[in-house]
Design goal:
Layout lengths: L5 H7 L5 E5 L5 H9 L4 E5 L6 H11 L2 E3 L2 E2 L4 E5 L2 E4 L2 E2 L18 E3 L3 E6 L1 H8 L5 E4 L5 H5 L10 E5 L12 H10 L2 E6 L3 E6 L12
Parallel strand pairs: 1-2, 1-10, 2-3, 4-9, 10-11
Antiparallel strand pairs: 5-9, 6-7, 6-8, 11-13, 12-13
Length: about 210
């Protein structure tokens, strides 16, 4: 479950935002965000097959626009690496379009056979559906750099909450520093960071001090 302080977000954005939840897994965070912003327009994205049926149902119930696809730096077909178990317990939350690295290939982990998934870039999705998000909440297990790399100039969400702790766990070719520098080059400042996530805010956006939700 995400640690993003949605009360802080409520203080700093209008009550009808367009929000993308990329890598939404079972949509727990998506629904929490929708409950916080009932008038908001929520787009949720996930490509792991295990979540497809229940997400389609949840999206319908909660008025969320669900797309069963990966978001990446490529529009087409990609290989997805689904996780199955961690320490003998079912664990489908660590699948990624990035191949697991040596730290994830151990006796603690069981991985399913990789399979092909559809993918689309943020640029192509926003053009296709004529939409630009105000907020992006993203957790894609090390593929965050791929999602924002080569982003068109007109796509600049005010706020981006991103997982930044998994780059070294997968064969990404990127580090957290690479991701931070990419965000800075796109016009963002890093307003908050902990061991797992970071908040990026457009430089021209004034906000209140970010406070950890307790």
């Amino acid at each position: 479950m995400s640690n993003f302080n949605l009360n802080w977000l409520t203080e700093n954005i209008h009550n009808t935002p367009i929000i993308f939840d990329i890598g939404c897994a079972d949509m727990t965070d998506t629904i929490n965000i929708k409950n916080q912003f009932p008038k908001g327009i929520l787009y949720a994205f996930e490509c792991a097959e295990i979540w497809r049926s229940q997400n389609l149902e949840k999206a319908l119930i909660n008025n969320i626009r669900y797309f069963h696809t990966a978001i990446s730096d490529n529009t087409g077909v990609l290989t997805f690496y689904p996780s199955l178990e961690l320490d003998g317990i079912q664990w489908p939350w660590s699948g990624s379009i990035c191949e697991p690295g040596p730290r994830l290939i151990s006796t603690r982990w069981v991985w399913e056979t990789p399979y092909d998934v559809n993918s689309i870039t943020l640029n192509d999705f926003c053009k296709k559906y004529t939409v630009v998000p105000d907020v992006i909440h993203i957790d894609v297990q090390g593929a965050e750099f791929k999602v924002f790399n080569k982003l068109d100039n007109y796509i600049r969400p005010k706020f981006i909450w991103a997982e930044i702790s998994e780059f070294h766990m997968y064969k990404t070719g990127n580090t957290y520093i690479d991701f931070k520098n990419l965000m800075i080059s796109l016009g963002y400042r890093e307003q908050f960071k902990d061991n797992c996530d970071a908040l990026y805010v457009l430089n021209n956006i004034f906000t209140t001090e970010y406070i950890i939700d307790v």
